[in-house]
Amino acid sequence: MSFLIERADPSQIDALCAIERKAVQLFRGHPAWASYSAISIPPELLQQAIGRGLVWVALNEAAVPVGFVWLDTDAGDSVAGIAEIDVLPDHGQRGIGAALLEHACAWAGAAGYRRVDLGTLADVRWNAPFYAKHGFAVVDKDGPAFAYARERDRENGFPDHLRVFMSRPLSAPGRGEWTVWPAPAKLNLFLRITGRRPDGYHELQTVFRLLDWGDEVRLRLRDDGEVRRLGGIPGVPPPTDLAVRAAQLLQRHARAATGVNIERAGVPPGVDIEVTKRIPMGGGLGGGSSDAATVLVALNQLWRLDLTEDVLAELGRQLGADVPVFVRGRSAWAEGIGEQLTPLSLPSRHYVVLDPHEPVPTVALFQAPELTRNAPRATISSFVSGETTENAFAPVVRARHPRVAAALDWLGGFGQARLSGSGGCVFLEAKSFDRATAIAARCPVAFTAQVAMGVDVSPLRDALARHRGAERATRTTGGR
Ligand SMILES: C[C@@](CO)(OP(=O)(O)O)[C@H](O)COP(=O)(O)OP(=O)(O)OC[C@H]1O[C@@H](n2ccc(N)nc2=O)[C@H](O)[C@@H]1O
Ligand SMILES: Nc1ncnc2c1ncn2[C@@H]1O[C@H](COP(=O)(O)OP(=O)(O)O)[C@@H](O)[C@H]1O
Q1: pLDDT digits (tens, 9 = 90+) for 157-216
Q2: Cβ neighbours for 473, distance < 8 A, ≥ 6 positions apart
Q3: Element (H, E) at 192
Q4: Domain check: are 156 and 199 in the same one?
Q5: In ligand 1, which atom is closest to the CA atom of 336?
Q6: Residues designated catalytic
Q7: ipTM rounded to 2 decimals
C-alpha cells in the first residue's frame, strides 16, 4: 500500500479526530487506558494547529486520511514537541507512523528547531521502543526543560510513573537544504489619513498589530547566483512577486555596497523561493509585504550579509509602505507612510479575522475622491484608551464592496468589527481564545474565519534567533 504525506486541511478535522479515537483503543487493558480514553482532541485546537501548518496527514491511495502528526511549537524557543501522532490500527506496521514522524522532524529542522521532544509510555511496543528506533532517547524528566511537558501531562491526568520523556536532537539545515521561515499577517487596529505628500503618497497614522499566523516562506541557497520562484502565485508573475523582488533587491544591494561581499567563499549567492500562501491576497493583512520582509531578513542571515535592521527596513520601504514593520518585527504605532515606527506593547488579545473573499485594490482606494484625507492627528494615548478605533477606508469600502459590508455587519453582531488596512478582511478583538473560536465556528459559509493571536514580537524574529542558534551550535559541534 502506498501513502502520501501532506499538510492537513481544516476539512480533515473530523477524520483526524476519528483516527485518534480508533488509535486509543489499542491501549485498552493498559493501566493508562482510563486517562487516555478520557481525553480526546479538542477540534478547535486541532484547527488552530492546522491553520499554522503544524499538522501533516498520511493519505491512502483513495486520498483518505489514515494517520497524522501534530507538532507543538509552544514549548520553548528552540524546541518542538510531538503533540499527537496516530495511525489507524488496521494500517499499523506499514511505516506510516515512521514516515509521519520523520516528516515532522524534517520540518522542525528546516525551521531551525534544535530538538523534538515527546512524552510516551515506556512499556508499550509502539511507543518508547518505536521512538528509540527513530533517534529519540529517554531524558531526565525532572529537568527544567520538561517542566512544561509534565505540566501538560498533569493537566491531562496521564500516569506519571508510566510515562517517559524522550528527545531527538536536530542539526541545522545544510547548505543545499530548505530552510523554513514564517511571514506573519498584520492587522491595522485603526487607520487615519492625515495628509498627502507631494509624491502622491498619503501620510497616515495606524497601529500595526502583528499576528502569530501567516504565510510560510521556504528558501534554499543556489550556487549559480539565480533567484528562482518555485510554485508561484496564480496571477502574480515571478518578476512582480514581492518575495522575488525582495531577493533581487537584496542581491543588487549586496553586490553594490562596499564592505558587503555576497560572493564570500562558501555562501552561494542565489536562492530558490517557495511560499505557502495562507494570508488572503489583497486582504489588507499585508501578506505580500510580509513575504518580502521575511525574504530580506532570512536571506541576510543565509547569505551572511550582516546588514543592519535599519538597512533592511529601508530596502523594505522601497518595496512597499507596509514592509518595514515586518522587517522590524514588532507591533507598532506607525506614522509617515507607515515606516516611522514606535514599538508598542499591547494587551494579549485574540482576533477573529474574516475573509469575505473580496480582494480590494489598495491603489483605487487611496485614489477615492470620497476618502477622508485631512483627519486630525490622533495620539497614542487616544488609541490606548480605546477612543481611536476607526479606519478611514471603512466607509469607502462599505459603499463599494457589499461583501465586505456584509462581513462587517455579521461580525459586528458580536462586538466592534473593524476593517484591516484597505480591506477586504475584517476582524474582531476577543479577550479569550474560547470566545474567538466560538464566534469563528459560527462563520457563514460565504466567508472564511481564522482565529489568530496578537503578538508584540514577530514570529520571524523568533525564527531568526532559532536559525542563528542552530547554526552556531552546528558550527561549534562541527556538524557540517
Ligand atoms: C493601506 C495599508 C495600511 O497598512 O495596507 P494594506 O491594505 O495594503 O495591507 C498600507 O498603507 C498600504 O501599504 P502597501 O500595500 O505596502 O502600499 P505600497 O505598495 O507602498 O503602495 C501601493 C499604492 O498605494 C498608495 N499609497 C500607499 C501607501 C500610502 N501611505 N499612501 C499611498 O497613497 C500609492 O498609490 C501606492 O502606489
Ligand atoms: N508574495 C506575494 N503575496 C501576495 N501578493 C503579492 C505577492 N507578490 C505580489 N503580490 C501582489 O500584491 C497585491 C497585494 O497583496 P497583499 O500584500 O496580500 O495584500 P494587501 O496589500 O491588501 O495587504 C496582490 O494582489 C498581488 O497582486
Answers
A1: 898 999 999 999 998 898 889 999 999 999 999 999 999 999 989 999 999 999 999 999
A2: 114, 172, 479
A3: strand 179-196
A4: no
A5: 30
A6: 186, 322
A7: 0.97
